[in-house]
Amino acid sequence: MVQRQSRNQGKELLDEAAQLVKKGIDAVAFSEHFFGPSGRLRSLWDTDEERRKLVNSRTYKMLQRQFAVLRSRDATSFEQDMERLSGRLTITVPKSLHAALRTEAAQEGVSLSELIRLKMGISYRQFMYLMTTSEPLRKKIA
Predict the structure, then answer these.
(1) Residues 6+ apart with CB under 8 A from 17
(2) Higher pLDDT residue, 6 or 31?
(3) Which has the least CB within 10 A, 1, 5, 31, 115?
(4) CA–CA distance, 129 with 123 (Å, rounded to integer)
């Protein structure tokens, strides 16, 4: 009975994965959806033994293969985009923001371009994580 239920869950997960791929999911979202702490696979085990069985299952291995295919596809797409880009970006900001950035760059001892590259190098998700977990950072920004 458990074996049959497990097979049905495996088929459902693989069908779900196929639908997500068909809709154009990227590798990061796929990984979070299935393998992340709140991912679909997490609900399938409660003990270390159940987790080991899951990791060795056909379903898990097929999801890992699909993830590898998506990572490869995303990397190829990224590389193609990189070839087409010049590396130059022009944006318009309020004069007050421009002045504040220039002042901060001078205080940090870096060029304005370097400061902006550093600030753009952190994702919004990373920034929000830091904001919610770092009391000193929240105080510094506030």
Answers:
(1) 30, 34, 62, 63, 66
(2) 31
(3) 1
(4) 10
Residue 85 burial (CB count, 10 A): 8
Q: What is the pLDDT of residues 44-83, one digit of tens each?
A: 888 999 999 999 999 999 999 999 999 999 999 888 888 8
Cα-based distances in Å from 58 to 11, 82, 107, 109:
10, 36, 56, 54
Nearest to 62 by CA among 37, 26, 24, 35: 35
List own/partner pairs for 57-60 with CB under 8 A and 24 or more apart.
57/6, 57/10, 58/10, 59/9, 59/10, 59/13, 59/14
How many CB atoms lie under 10 A from the CB of residue 33? 17
Q: At residue 88, what are phi and psi to the nearest 5 degrees?
A: -110, 140
User: What sign does the dihedral 126-131-136-139 (CA atoms) show?
Assistant: positive
CA distances from 91 to 98, 100, 105, 117 (A): 11, 16, 17, 13
3-state helix, strand, coil split of the chain in percent (to 5) is: 80, 0, 20
